[in-house]
């Protein structure tokens, strides 16, 4: 059994550090709170730089958390019950949590080095939906995500970390303006496929595309913007019961990524991303040739 130090003194610098990171509004976000065992372990595996990991004095820390911290030499302490009550007055008290430094933002240049499909979310603002899409994207091998007009200022948003179960740091996620995102896809030539109720392709047709794709999904209320649609190679529809108004955007993303999982997960073509500090400037993968079974790009 591991004997861990217990924080009982309110003047301990860690107490103020935790209090600061739990504030709902901060002008500058340099650290992020990672809560619960599964997100903690995932963020440690993703290479996030942790200042310290904590557990509640009344609850033993899970073995997988301790093992992950030991492997990365992350300091671990327990927090006394009175201090836990002060720090998390109205919130659900986490049994395990950590304070990590926010990594620098991903760039489009880094995104271009992946060979997996890119999810583009145009005007999707509900953080729960974005978090679910992040988790599904990682699980089904997507190369990265572009968030356009999401109202998020950082991927280290505490709500997004919770909703994604910590996977928000496990793949490239770029926050971008619509103009910058469109310029990126024009420059790289990655085919943009827009999801629409009147699409010219069925979602099953995506299985025939033997190349990297950018899968564009809009909000349930407004759909995708006309500026994005103007550069789309194809539009794709998902068949649903006519009596149903629409599908949740995270469900649409899951269906699309399932149809593309044979490409994104095949032979684990993309090696795991190293920690942010160790990423090299290696060039982008060349991808695979296009099979004629997939319809060619529409001219615009």
Automatic annotation (TrEMBL):
GO terms for molecular function: methyltransferase activity. Residues 5-112 form the Thiostrepton-resistance methylase N-terminal domain. Residues 266-300 are annotated as: Disordered. The keyword Cell inner membrane does not apply. Residues 118-258 form the tRNA/rRNA methyltransferase SpoU type domain. Coiled coil: none annotated. It comes from the Bacteria. Keywords: Methyltransferase, Transferase. Residues 266-281 have a biased composition (Basic and acidic residues). One of its GO terms (biological process) is methylation. This is NshR/TsnR family 23S rRNA methyltransferase. The gene is nshR.
């Amino acid at each position: 059994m591991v004997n861990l130090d217990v924080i009982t003194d309110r003047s301990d610098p860690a107490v103020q550090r935790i209090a600061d990171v739990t504030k709902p509004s901060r002008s500058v976000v340099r650290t992020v709170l990672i809560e619960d065992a599964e997100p903690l372990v995932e963020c440690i595996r993703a290479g996030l730089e942790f200042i310290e990991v904590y557990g509640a004095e009344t609850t033993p820390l899970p073995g997988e958390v301790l093992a992950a911290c030991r492997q990365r030499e992350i300091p671990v302490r327990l927090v006394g019950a009175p201090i836990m009550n002060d720090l998390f007055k109205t919130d659900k008290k986490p049994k395990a949590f950590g304070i990590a430094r926010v990594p620098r933002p991903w760039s489009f240049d880094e995104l271009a080095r992946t060979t997996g499909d890119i999810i583009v979310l145009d005007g999707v603002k509900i953080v729960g939906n974005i978090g679910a899409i992040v988790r599904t994207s990682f699980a089904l091998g997507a190369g990265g995500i572009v968030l356009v007009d999401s109202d998020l200022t950082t991927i280290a948003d505490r709500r997004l970390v919770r909703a994604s179960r910590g996977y928000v740091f496990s793949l490239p996620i770029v926050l971008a303006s619509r103009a910058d995102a469109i310029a990126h896809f024009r420059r790289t030539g990655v085919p943009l496929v827009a999801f629409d109720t009147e699409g010219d392709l069925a979602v099953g047709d995506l299985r025939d595309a033997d190349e990297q794709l950018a899968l564009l999904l809009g909000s349930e209320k407004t759909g995708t913007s006309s500026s994005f649609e103007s550069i789309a190679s194809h539009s794709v529809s998902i068949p649903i019961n006519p009596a149903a108004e629409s599908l949740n955007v995270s469900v649409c993303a899951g269906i699309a990524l399932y149809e593309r999982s044979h490409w994104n997960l095949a032979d684990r073509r993309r090696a795991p991303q190293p920690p942010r500090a160790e990423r090299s400037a290696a060039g982008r993968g060349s991808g695979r040739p296009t099979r004629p079974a997939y319809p060619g790009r529409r001219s615009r």
